[in-house]
Amino acid sequence: ESLFSHTIYGSVILTDDDNFLNKNLLRTHGEILCEIKIKNIEDEIFEYIFVIGNVELEIKNEIADGAVAVLSLISRDFFRNLYRFKSKGYVNLPITDIIKQILKEELNTDIEMKEENFQNSEDKSTYGFTKIRPFEKVDILKQKAYSPNLSVTSTYLFYENRDGYNFKTFENIILNNIRVKPESYIYSQNMS
């Protein structure tokens, strides 16, 4: 998870003693899926389905009876984004709503979009896009969005985390993640 990435991504290192990947996986065509389940400290299970974007094999020995594989994992939405080019216009809508429409209609995402994860931008805009990828449209829109709160700068971030897609200002992220009151320390030169 990263505030500076559209989607969740990662890599997995596997030891392939039976040479399964070399015999089977590398000969397939199309979308290869990998489901990951992780349990966190609170015993919550996070499940995510990735597309295997790349496989790097390192043969263990000369006989090639096994290998170490590094699987580069990308989200299904990231994979779909690579091949979706659509021209479309949006008329008199808040940027937040345009982004949600792009994700639903153009990307056909199944990632959750909770209302509390989308901070409204203060604008109604009209945009026309010509044959560019959905995430490229989101990047353009997040630069044009501005916050209704005049005391906050308008640096919007679009990212995916375990809670789904998010569209928030940088300041909102910082202010909402402060959970503990900072401790006060007193400086004294008489410390021994």
Report on this structure:
Strand 7 (156-161) and strand 8 (164-169) form a beta hairpin. The strands form 3 sheets. This protein has a 4-stranded antiparallel beta sheet. The chain has a two-stranded antiparallel sheet with strand order 5-6. Strands 7-8 form a two-stranded antiparallel ribbon. Helix 3 (95-106) packs antiparallel against helix 4 (134-144). The protein has 192 residues and is of the alpha+beta class. It has helices at 20-23, 76-82, 95-106, 134-144, 170-176, and strands spanning 9-16, 33-39, 45-59, 67-75, 86-93, 125-132, 156-161, 164-169. The chain is 21% helix and 35% strand. The mean pLDDT is 79.
Feature tags:
alpha+beta; 5 helices; about 190 residues; two-stranded antiparallel sheet; about 20% helix; about 35% strand
